[in-house]
Amino acid sequence: MPGLEDMYPPGATTRVRVHELDQRLEGAQRPGHFEGVATVVTKLFGATRPHRAYFGQKDAQQAALITRMARDLDMGIEIVTVPTVRDSDGVALSSRNAYLSDEERKAARCLVGALRAANTAFHEGERDAVRLRERMVAVLAAEPLARPNYAEVVDPTTFESPGTLAVLAVRIGRTRLIDNHPLGQPLDDAS
Amino acid sequence: MPGLEDMYPPGATTRVRVHELDQRLEGAQRPGHFEGVATVVTKLFGATRPHRAYFGQKDAQQAALITRMARDLDMGIEIVTVPTVRDSDGVALSSRNAYLSDEERKAARCLVGALRAANTAFHEGERDAVRLRERMVAVLAAEPLARPNYAEVVDPTTFESPGTLAVLAVRIGRTRLIDNHPLGQPLDDAS
Predict the structure, then answer these.
(1) Which pTM value belongs to this model?
(2) Which of A8, A13, A67 to mutate to test the interface with B (most CBs of B within 10 A)?
(3) How many domains does one find in chain A?
(4) Per-residue pLDDT, B173
C-alpha cells in the first residue's frame, strides 16, 4: 500500500478528466470527485499494469467513467463491471450501511423498493423516463426517514436522461446512499 | 498510422491536463495546446507501451510537461530529452524553417543570437533573470524582421521565472519560431 506522499508527491499537477459524464448526477453532487477518481485510477493502472480491472455496478457512474476513460486513453485494460450484491432484504451492500441505526437500516429499503417499482413498471411496458422516475419518487416519498437526492432513468454510458438505467441517491439520516438497476433485468432479492 | 477517427472516436471526452505548467509561456500563447499534447501522448503511450520515449529539447516546455505527466501518472515510462540540433549558423532545426524566405531565414539567426548573448552573460557571472532577459531582448530588437513574442529565463521544470533556462518565441514574418538554451551549457554552432 503506497502512502499519501507516494501517491501525491509535491509538484504533481497532472489531472485526468472525463468531461460531461463527470458533471452528471454524482458529479454534480460531489464537485471534483470524479476528477480525483479518474486521476488516481490512472495512476493505479500505471503502477500495476493490469489486464483487467473489476468495478462494482453499485457505483454505476464510476464504472461507466472508468470504462470510458480506459477506452479514450487506449489503456489496453478491460474494465469488467460486476453485479451489485444485495442483502437478504434487497438493500445493496455498502460500507456505508454500517453508519445506519437499526431504524435507518430498515428505512434504507426504500432505495431498492424504488428501483423495484421502476423495474416492475418497465416490465409492464412503461418506457417513459418521466413516469418511471415518478414511480421511484413515490416510493421514496413514502419513507419518512428518506431525503431523496436524485432519482433518474438515464443512459448507462452518458448518464443523460432518458435511458434504461434507474439511478438514485438518498440520504437516510446523515448517511448518503446510492443504488441503481438496469431496467428490464431481474432484481433478485429475498424481500 | 491510426486515422483521425481511430484516435478521436465519437463520445470520447477524456482529457489529460498538467496544470500550472500548461498555462505558462507556450500554454498562454496557445490555449488548449498542451491539453491536446498531454491527451494524445497519453493515448500513444497506452497504445504502444514504450519503455522509453524521446522528446526534443527544442520544445522544452513540451518535454518538461510530458516528463512531469509520466511521473505524476506513474506511467513507468522513461522520458528522454534529446539535445537541439542546430544548422551551421546556429539556427535550431525545425520543420517551420521551410516557411521562411531567404531573408527571413537570415533574420531567424536572432533567436540563437539572443540565447548566445544570455549564455555569454551567464558565463561572465550574471545571474539576475531580469538582466539576462534584457540581453536577449536587445538582440531581438536589433533585428527588424523579428517580432518577439516572449523571452524569459525560467525554471526548467515549472517554467516560472527566475531560473536558468533561457526560452524565447519570435515571429519572423508569418512564421512563429521558438528556441531555448540551458544557461551555462556550451551553445555549440559553427557561426
Answers:
(1) 0.93
(2) A13
(3) 2
(4) 95
